[in-house]
């Protein structure tokens, strides 16, 4: 049941996508429409605190939709025959990936999944409320944006167990829907363009997130982070815009609107930034292209402003709405809002101008010089550094320009090249500002590549879409088809050269995750001996913080205390050998801490002689067991072994 | 049914795809049959021999011999090396029992095979299938690409502090017919993608190109 529930979820999603086709949406855009609709529904109801109710409604409505389709939809409109390559691609790719993950059962394995995404997903499943409101006692998971977690929630609604592979599967379905939507502008009667484009798009995350041959299983399509999904959504939103531009049909615009809302909820503030870039590109395109906006400038200006304002409104409303909810929810649970920010957002523009004029802020100067240097020299993709990525994208656009015969279509390519480049500059500026004012000083340029991937992926995909869409406007469409086909062969070869099949989602071996699975099993065995209302102090003397995060994740619903440093142990420890572990604290101070924070148990994950020399007096048996119960004795504390108690 | 038939008839695309996948499947089948035949030829000419080895025949890294004859893994990356590219290898069967730390099965058993003069890489890795029978040591077996002579590296586990007891390690034990027909992940991916791209390429040819037109005409 726990495994099969993902199929039920996928079936519901397909029903919604079919209904979307039934009401006249492009078949290729229908899956993304259903995915974004699902995401937004669960984000909204999650914020209001009605997640289980939202899920029940979701499945009941899907059942009703299915009945309607069976008795009216299919007969009336011969629905199956309206479907397209893009829709089929979505269904097939999703089913294949569900099958693969089901058999091989991957589990979370990266730091960020334990400290942020994975733990947030598990909290949401276990407590049936948003992770922001779930009791965890530390603030990091709550800082995540909700889109992927909200979308993953209904996938695991039924049953009791939380299965990480289903989080991955939901995340992949999300991404495949975005890939399918890329095909919307040109796939009609052009399957031999759509097929190579879908293949290139499918492999594009490998091109942009690897810079060398991976030494372990690639995280592409095997993680729950927001970077790649955001990049794919960015590309899809642009494709949906070009499909809708200049048309009055609401069926073309609707998926785009939902897509923009969802983008703003995927990753940090950059999701909103990319949604704004889409709005900006749409503004330029509508304003300067008579074929879209109309012959008169005034008319075009009106339409362009509508595009811009609607885009901005959607992105900002979604983002600020979430921030508003977040501030209240986290304050309400009394959770720590410990985040990496150190300046309030409103003050940033003023500070920036001040620093630019005076040039006296060392961090400012370092970042403003560092960003261009990274762009030119830091090889973060298989294509090389950022400048090479941009060169490739521009080359695609030049080819698209040359192949297009119609003037309007050529203008579209030129406008896109210009507007997206300006957008890229603005995006870089935003990242720079984030480094200067929002990140701590020791985090300068951290995750630089992860902030750049989304823009590169989306930019590349949109250029690819414009090239493929030239098939409608070319004097000799066969040249476009040929060019896309050649490009797809080149991409396949390049990816195959660098990424071994055995390290991709397609070919990885179940055994690659054996280590993580064994660790989780061991930790869950320990947790099963505790009560669900226990608060556990973890001692792990050689930990750099990663084990603390993993234990937090695996122990749930048993809570883990911050334990003198939590995930920041690497930064607070003074001695690499762990000799000075808990160096600041005497045995009495530790005992006091345990009492004050209502810690009920201590888990010795890893301890050494130095540790017992210092704190051994607190242990009733001198130490050596794994689990101890905290027992108050007068003003002090004794730790009594829990072994055999359960 | 009628609708479906008409739809198929009107879709050169579907016919093209079916054709390409059929051709690719037949080709893949031929390749696998060829491997099987080649393997049998090597066997009858004596180029491929079944060998019984013991753990002493391997160069050991991070495997420490204990008094009771078993080996302790002293790191998370223990390795068994067999450097002899004069030896043709197409399968390895290893008897091994794991103990210690409350476990009885290894986390992962994998083997790298490198051609002469090349290093070990993730491109040339196989994972063991395990088979355990009552009363004897569990059997871990690998199938390698047919016809090659390799430097072998077996990673018997990926955890430190385990005790491994080895039995016989058989090179080129007789294989089942079916094992010659299991594609690797890379081969399966090729089988999926190449026919589709090929069909795209063929569809670019002028529609009055004769071989395709004749097929089209036959179907209506």
Helix tally of chain B? 4
Helix content of chain A: 55-70%
What is the subunit arrangement here? heterodimer
Q: What is the H-and-E element order of chain B?
A: HHEEEEEEEEEEEEHH
> Structural class from helices and strands of chain A?
mainly alpha
Radius of gyration of chain A: 26 Å
Radius of gyration of chain B: 24 Å
Keywords:
heterodimer; A: 646 residues; mainly alpha; five-stranded mixed beta sheet; two-stranded antiparallel ribbon; 24 helices; 7 strands; 63% helix; B: 220 residues; alpha+beta; seven-stranded antiparallel beta sheet; five-stranded antiparallel beta sheet
Task: Give the helix/strand layout.
The complex is a heterodimer of chains A (about 650) and B (about 220).
Chain A: H1 5-22, H2 30-48, H3 51-77, H4 85-104, H5 111-127, H6 147-155, H7 164-181, H8 191-209, H9 227-244, H10 250-263, H11 270-288, H12 290-293, H13 297-333, H14 348-358, H15 362-377, E1 379-381, E2 384-385, H16 386-403, H17 407-438, H18 448-469, H19 477-498, H20 514-528, E3 535-540, H21 546-555, E4 559-560, H22 569-572, H23 587-596, E5 601-606, H24 609-615, E6 627-633, E7 636-641
Parallel strand pairs in A: 3-4, 3-5
Antiparallel strand pairs in A: 1-2, 5-6, 6-7
Helix pairs in contact in A: 1-2, 1-3, 2-3, 2-6, 2-7, 2-10, 4-7, 5-6, 5-21, 6-7, 7-9, 8-18, 8-19, 9-10, 9-11, 9-18, 10-13, 11-13, 11-17, 15-17, 16-17, 16-18, 17-18, 20-21
Chain B: H1 2-9, H2 12-45, E1 51-53, E2 59-61, E3 63-65, E4 71-73, E5 79-82, E6 91-99, E7 110-114, E8 125-127, E9 129-131, E10 139-143, E11 151-155, E12 163-171, H3 185-203, H4 210-219
Antiparallel strand pairs in B: 1-12, 2-5, 3-4, 4-12, 5-11, 6-10, 6-12, 7-8, 7-11, 9-10
Helix pairs in contact in B: 2-3
């Amino acid at each position: 049941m726990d495994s099969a529930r993902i199929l039920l979820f996928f079936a519901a999603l397909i029903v919604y996508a079919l209904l979307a086709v039934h009401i006249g949406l492009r078949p290729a855009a229908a899956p993304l429409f259903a995915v974004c609709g699902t995401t937004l529904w669960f984000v909204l109801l999650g914020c209001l605190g009605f997640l289980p109710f939202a899920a029940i409604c979701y499945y009941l409505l899907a059942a009703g939709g299915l009945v309607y389709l069976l008795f009216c939809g299919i007969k009336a409109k011969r629905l199956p025959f309206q479907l397209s390559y893009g829709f089929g691609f979505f269904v097939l790719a999703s089913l294949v990936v569900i099958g693969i993950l089901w058999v091989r059962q991957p589990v979370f394995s990266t730091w960020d999944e334990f400290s942020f995404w994975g733990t947030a997903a598990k909290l949401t499943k276990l407590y049936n409320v948003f992770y922001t409101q779930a009791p965890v006692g530390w603030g990091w998971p709550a800082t995540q944006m909700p889109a992927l977690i909200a979308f993953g929630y209904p996938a695991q609604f039924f049953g009791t167990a939380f299965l990480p592979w289903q989080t991955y599967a939901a995340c992949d379905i999300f991404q495949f829907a975005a890939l399918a939507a890329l095909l919307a502008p040109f796939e009609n009667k052009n399957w031999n363009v759509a097929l190579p484009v879908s293949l290139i798009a499918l492999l594009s995350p490998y091109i942009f997130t690897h810079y060398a041959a991976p030494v372990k299983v690639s995280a592409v399509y095997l993680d729950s982070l927001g970077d790649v999904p955001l990049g794919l959504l960015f590309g899809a939103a642009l494709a949906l815009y070009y499909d809708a531009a200049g048309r009055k049909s609401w069926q073309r615009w609707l998926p785009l609107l939902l897509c923009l809302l969802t983008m703003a909820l995927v990753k940090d503030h950059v999701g909103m930034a990319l949604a704004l870039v889409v709005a900006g590109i749409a503004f330029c395109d509508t304003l300067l292209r008579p074929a879209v906006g109309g012959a008169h400038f005034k008319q075009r200006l009106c339409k362009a402003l509508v595009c811009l304002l609607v885009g901005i409104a959607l992105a900002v409303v979604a983002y600020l709405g979430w921030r508003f909810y977040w501030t209240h929810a986290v304050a309400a649970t009394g959770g720590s809002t410990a985040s990496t920010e150190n300046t309030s957002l409103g003050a940033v523009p003023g500070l920036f101008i001040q620093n630019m004029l005076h040039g006296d802020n060392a961090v400012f100067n370092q970042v403003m010089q560092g960003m261009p240097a990274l762009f030119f020299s830091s090889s973060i993709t298989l294509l090389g550094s950022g400048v090479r990525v941009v060169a490739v994208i521009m080359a695609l656009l030049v080819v698209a320009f040359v192949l297009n015969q119609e003037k309007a279509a050529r203008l579209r390519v030129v406008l896109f090249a210009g507007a997206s480049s300006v957008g890229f500059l603005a995006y870089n500026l935003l990242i720079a500002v984030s480094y200067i004012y929002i990140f701590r000083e020791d985090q300068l340029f951290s995750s630089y590549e992860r902030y750049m991937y989304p823009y590169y992926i989306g930019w590349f995909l949109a250029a690819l879409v414009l090239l493929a869409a030239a098939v409608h406007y070319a004097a000799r469409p066969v040249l476009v088809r040929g060019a896309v086909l050649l490009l797809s062969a080149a991409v396949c070869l390049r990816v195959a050269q660098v990424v071994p099949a055995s390290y991709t989602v397609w070919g990885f071996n179940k055994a690659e995750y054996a280590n993580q699975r064994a660790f989780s099993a061991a930790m869950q065995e320990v947790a099963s001996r505790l009560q669900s209302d226990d608060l556990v102090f973890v001692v792990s003397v050689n930990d750099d913080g990663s084990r603390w995060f993993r234990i937090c994740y695996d122990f749930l619903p048993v809570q883990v205390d911050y334990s003198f440093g939590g995930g920041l142990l690497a930064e607070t420890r003074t001695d690499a050998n762990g000799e000075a572990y808990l160096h600041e604290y005497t045995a009495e101070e530790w005992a006091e801490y345990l009492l004050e924070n209502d810690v009920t148990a201590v888990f010795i994950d890893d301890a050494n002689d130095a540790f017992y020399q210092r704190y051994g007096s607190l242990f009733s048996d001198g130490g050596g067991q794994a689990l101890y119960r905290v027992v108050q004795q007068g003003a002090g504390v004794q730790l009594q072994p829990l072994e055999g108690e359960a | 049914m009628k609708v479906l038939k008409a739809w198929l008839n009107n879709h050169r695309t579907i016919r093209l795809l079916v054709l390409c996948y059929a051709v690719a499947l037949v080709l893949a089948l031929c390749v696998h049959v060829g491997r099987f035949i080649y393997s049998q030829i090597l066997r009858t000419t004596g180029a491929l021999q079944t060998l019984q080895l013991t753990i002493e025949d391997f160069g050991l890294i991070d495997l420490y011999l204990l008094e009771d004859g078993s080996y302790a893994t002293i790191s998370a990356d223990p390795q068994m090396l067999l450097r002899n590219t004069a030896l043709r290898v197409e399968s390895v069967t290893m008897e091994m029992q794991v103990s210690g730390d409350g476990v009885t099965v290894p986390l992962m058993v994998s083997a790298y095979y490198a051609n002469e003069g090349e290093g070990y890489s993730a491109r040339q890795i196989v994972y063991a299938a395990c088979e355990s029978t009552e009363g004897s040591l569990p059997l871990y077996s690998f199938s390698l690409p047919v016809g090659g002579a390799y430097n072998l590296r077996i990673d018997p586990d990926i955890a430190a502090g385990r005790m491994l007891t080895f039995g016989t390690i058989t090179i080129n034990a007789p294989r089942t017919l079916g094992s010659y027909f299991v594609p690797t992940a890379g081969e399966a991916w090729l089988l999926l993608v190449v026919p589709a791209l090929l069909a795209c390429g063929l569809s670019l040819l002028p529609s009055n190109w004769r071989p395709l037109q004749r097929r089209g005409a036959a179907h209506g």
